[in-house]
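ok so dumb question maybe but i'm new to this and my supervisor (M.) told me to 'just get the structure for Transglutaminase family protein' and walked off. so i did the thing. is this what she meant?? sequence i used:
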Amino acid sequence: MLQIRQYDAHAWVEAFIDGVWIRHDPTSMVAPSRLTFGLERALEELGESREASILGDLSNAAIFATLQSWFQQLDYSWSKWVLGFDNTAQTNMLEELLGSLTPQKMRVVFLSAIGLIGLILALYFLPKTHRNTLSPSHRVLLNAIKCVEAKTGKERGNKTLSAFMSEVNPLMNEDAAKALRLLCELFEHEKYAHRTQEAKVYPTMKRQLKMLKQALK
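this is what came out, is it supposed to look like this??
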């Protein structure tokens, strides 16, 4: 990395005199060493300093030099990868990764990027399954609803249990309707009233599910 400081720069004049370009550089006549070593070295030879302050000694400290080098590298990286990341830089980077660029390779890269973005969005937005977190009694109820849907052709969807029963009861015999009603009552009782009685409710719901399946045959 080449570093150019403003105080190390100098100016000269190139004049067109009598048909010839002539360079006049006053710096080379006044302080020739500055052309080679810069302002600070030239001043050191004269026993002077570019700036004198209570913080002047910090510039020679190791930690200050490390921080300065880190910020310089950060500034260089910003200029290279952000400000200077033009079409040529993009092409060079792709050629380093993929070799010679062809339409087929670019198509594969483009489709792969689209697929990766789509997969990330799908994992983020698609509903996650909660089957592993369902209680045993809840699974029994869902099994019963699935059997009723298959028999009646009516899907529950987002309906409440009471609304679903009102819709399917006329399409089932009395025993099936009674078994479904008891299953819903047991589930609501276990879910919302007495959560600690799941061990007692679950066996009863299994028996009602068996009776419901027999009644639907």
